[in-house]
Amino acid sequence: MCHMISIISYLMMNDIIQEIESLITIVRGLQPNKVPEEPKKRVKRVKVVKVIPIHNHPIDDETHHDCELCRTHGNILVPYKK
Ligand SMILES: [Zn+2]
Predict the structure, then answer these.
(1) C-alpha 51 to ligand 1 mean position (Å)
(2) Taking a C-beta distance cutoff of 8 angstroms, is the pair 4, 10 a contact?
(3) Tens digit of pLDDT for each residue in 21-57?
(4) What is the pLDDT of residue 17?
């Protein structure tokens, strides 16, 4: 008995699978080879930010050791001589 039921359910499964396959064919026919649109590539533009070194203090003839530009280039009025 149990065996019979499994055969019947197998046959039903086959029917269902065939049904689904025919449906898939129909749906494919409705949408003939839709080419998926390629997403537009965004060109990433890297902004080149020029960092212009500036003194972080008022102009005087002192060399400020906490000032990046003074350390690298010397004082505004008395720059390092090369
Ligand atoms: Zn400075």
Answers:
(1) 15
(2) no
(3) 999 998 888 876 667 777 777 888 888 888 788 888 9
(4) 93
Number of domains, the chain: 2
CA–centroid distance, 81 to ligand 1, in Å, is 16
58 assigned to some structural domain: yes
- The owner of tokens 């050791």 is 65
Residue 52 tokens read as 């212009």
Distance 46 CA to ligand 1 centre (A): 30
User: Is 40 part of a structural domain of the chain?
Assistant: no
Q: Which tokens go with 54?
A: 């500036």
Distance 47 CA to ligand 1 centre (A): 27
